[in-house]
Amino acid sequence: MDAISLKQAQEINSSIRAVVLGVIQKSIYEAFGEILARDIICEKSLPAFDNSAMDGYALKISDIKKNIKINGRVLAGDDARDLEILDGECIKVMTGGMLPKGSEVVVPFEDVELKDNGYIRVVKDFKPNANIRFKGEEKSIGDLIAKKGDRLTHGLIGLIASQGVKNVEVYKRLKIAVYSSGNEIIEPGESAKEHQIYNINAVSIIALLRAYGYVAEYLGVLKDDLDVLKKEIEVFQKYDIVITSGGVSVGEADFFEKSLKNSGAQIKYHGINIKPGRAIMLAVLGNSTIFSLPGNPLSAITLLNTIILPTIQKLSGANKIYPKPIFAKLKAPIKLKNGRVNMVLGRYTKGEFEVYKGGNYGSNAISVINECDSIAIIGEKISQIQEDIKILPYVMEFSDTIFDIINE
User: Fold this and answer.
1) Are the beta carbons of 46 and 136 closer than 8 angstroms?
2) Contact yes or no for 46/139 (Cβ under 8 A)
3) Residue 306 gets which letter from DSSP?
4) In a 10 Å sphere around its CB, with 0-12 CB exposed, 13-18 middle and 19+ buried, how is residue 44 labelled?
5) Where is pLDDT greater, at 382 or 202?
6) Neighbours of 288 (CB within 10 A)
7) Helix (H), strand (E) at residue 222
8) What SS3 class is residue 72?
9) Nearest CA-CA partner of 176 in 243, 222, 79, 126
10) What is the pLDDT of residues 350-364, one digit of tens each?
11) Within a 10 A sphere around the Cβ of 399, how many other Cβ atoms?
């Protein structure tokens, strides 16, 4: 199967039929990172009542520069619905306190002079409505609080809690399985012989998925044996997404594609004209989406970040699935071999992107992943970039708007 372009791969990924996710209820205290399964509409205005933005005195604007009698006090949480500001009077009110009827301005304590017999005098001018937060100025009844498909962040959870919501309806989490592949792979903690390699990829993949709120189950190392692979592929269909690394390059010992085909899987593509990571494969088996990554750690992690995560976002029910690049100045020009898409790693600091070691590193590099924080995707027709560049941070932001993430 010939390698396809990155844009073709993106189109194929976006066409994958989403699994039908169940819906469960979760306590608002335990819902962080979940995907909301229904819209939440404002039923309690924000703020819920006119209140004071300062510790001060609520009064009528016409009484400024006059002696005004203090006629009560309102603390945060007090019910002031039966109180009213009369001409020549004021009420002391604390920040967040409900404002009595007739309040036209709140004057901070530091802007008044205390007079004898419980009077004050305002010592500077104020405009009407100063230091007043009005009912519904942030959200009114009927406004959209949160949208189906939103990922629940700490800020959004707080906004939902402002409506008195105790439990939220969220999609069941995708079941994600992660494998490594190859007879040369052993697990951390075991004693490695000279020809053996510790399992870097599975650990890194699971950690990166967790950074985006996904939980994956590690199911071990797939051995290069057709009979063993056949049995393990039967397990794949218990999961919504399966991510493997290794066993997808063109070679005599790479049995994985053959095993998938023998099990009835449809190979969507095997190879993208990209560096690093040309040997990536996408297959669909029943309701399971299977991504097979190259064994080189750098290839695996860059492909997970740039190609696989947007697909996982879509399948999870999220409404923001498109990577959102940030724009940077190049610290130094980049020269590249054209004819393929190049993914270049570097660091983003104070608005500048610096390519790691000038691009002099291989796809088998390990330390580069840790020492960088961003990826630039360079179009196949580009051999040099001089100034501005679009980059994707390792932990990137997603949007409901399609962005062109390729520098062309």
Assistant:
1) yes
2) yes
3) I
4) middle
5) 202
6) 20
7) strand 216-222
8) strand
9) 243
10) 999 999 988 888 777
11) 14
The three-class DSSP label of residue 53 is: coil
Q: Tens digit of pLDDT for each residue in 196-231?
A: 888 889 999 999 999 998 999 999 988 777 888 889
Residue in the structure block whose two tokens are 């023998």: 262
Instruction: State the DSSP H helix or E strand holding residue 328, giving kind and residue range, or none if neither.
Output: strand 326-330
Count of all residues that appear for the chain in the document? 408
> CA neighbours within 13 Å on the CB side: how many for 21?
26
Cα 83–chain centre separation: 46
Provide the 3-class DSSP secondary structure of residue 312: helix
| CA–CA separation, 125 and 65 (whole Å) | 8
Q: What are the residues whose beta carbons fall under 8 Å from the beta carbon of 163, sequence distance 6 or more?
A: 40, 42, 43, 44, 145
- Please report the pLDDT score of residue 225 as a whole number: 78
Give the Cα separation of 317 and 38 in Å (integer): 11
And the tokens for 268? 């969507």
Here the tokens at position 384 are: 């040099």
Write down the pTM of the prediction.
Answer: 0.85
The type of residue at 318 is A
Tokens 């039966």 -> residue: 82
C-beta separation of 93 from 101 below 8 A: no
- Which positions ≥6 away from 18 have C-beta within 8 Å? 314, 315, 317
Q: Is the pLDDT of residue 253 over 50?
A: no
| pLDDT exceeds 70 at position 343 | yes
Q: Is the pLDDT confidence value at 292 over 90?
A: yes
How many other C-beta atoms can be found within 10 angstroms of the C-beta atom of residue 9? 23
Nearest CA-CA partner of 217 in 179, 169, 162: 179
C-alpha 401/C-alpha 374 separation (Å) is 21
CA Rg value for the chain = 30
Alpha carbon dihedral 298, 304, 307, 309, in 10-degree steps, equals: -160
Average pLDDT of the chain, as a whole number = 92
Tokens at 189, concatenated: 């903690």
Enter the DSSP assignment of 100. P
Tokens describing residue 179: 């494998």
